Amino acid sequence: MKRVKRSKKRDERNDVNDPFIMIPMELKLEILMKLPPRSIARLRFASKHLSSIILGKDFTELCMTRSSTQPRRHLVSVHRGSDMQLFHSFSQEEHPSSNSNDHDKVGYTLDPDVRYLFTPPVRGLICGRKGIKMVIGNPSTGQFVTLPRIKTRKKEILSVFGYDPVNDVYKVLCLTVITQRGNIARGIISRDYFLEDVMAWEAIVSKEHQVITVGAKNKWRMIECKYPHRHYAGNHGICRDGVLYYLASYKQKRSLMGFDLSTEEFNVTKLPDDYELQEFGNLVNHSGKITIATQVNTGAIDLWVQDDVNKEVWSKTASVVPSVAHICGANQRLMFRGILPTGEIIFAPLPSPNPFFFLCYDPKEKKVRQVVVDGIGDDSAAIQVFFDHVESYMVL
Asked: Which InterPro entries match (predicted)?
């Protein structure tokens, strides 16, 4: 992202004539926090004094604390045409409407023909990747910055974005895989997993483990992992309390991998020996708890919840997919996407309808509400929906 260079003398002249300097700091912060994030991002160019406040960590944390007390938001990412990425943001408690002041939409022009897929937002920021290209963005301000390209020639990549509260930094973990034929001779992979000289899926493990700290001039660093595992392509990881979690095959079993962003060490958690979980389990958003959901043939949904992250103890609950023929039609498939703090279960129709919508089901009241997102039509593709999003005033 190109940054505007300003004259030092001009900045000093603006500061001298800036009446904002004479206002008490507490009042300054109150005034700034009443402005929308996009205005804050532009206002930092008004004067050196304003820039020092807006770019300061104290202001960013104060805004984040306030945003965290507000109703959480839905965030919808839409790739439109060949080079436009749109983000729709609106309260989880209200119906989004083009006439609503709460419905925010920001567009960002990407490189032509590059369709980024994004990981779940973390403290208002998101991370998008296409091959070895990667961006970090703040949908609230419309700012996106490009990270250094991932150092690999492999095609199968998993990237997980998170926040390290110990060091107050954002990091990205990146895994790539390589076939380990030598593992057969060493006995790590059983010969029974090979048939007609075709390499078994479990014989392919993550070999390159890289991490980058988001910030100026930082580079990808190779790190060690003592747990040979294979991540599942197409699955998103999540960040909880400074730890990145994702599902992977470890010792021929679906397992929960953890990566501590502070110590940069891996750990592995055993999952229940349940057939559907082992074959179809997906890590989902569930109000801050590590949860694995299974849904087979659009039937009942099993939720495996880890109540204590330090113990390999999982509780299981089941939920029935509601009847929504009156909304979607008799032949519309519903896929589970997550659970809101209110307890509502989110379902997304497949294929994506036009106009685009998703469903919120209250299992206690047995009620379904439809959430239609305005502005998403036939020219939209690669639609992603995220929940529990918060606005961020952080300037990138």
From this structure: F-box-assoc_dom_typ3, F-box-assoc_interact_dom, F-box-like_dom_sf, F-box_dom
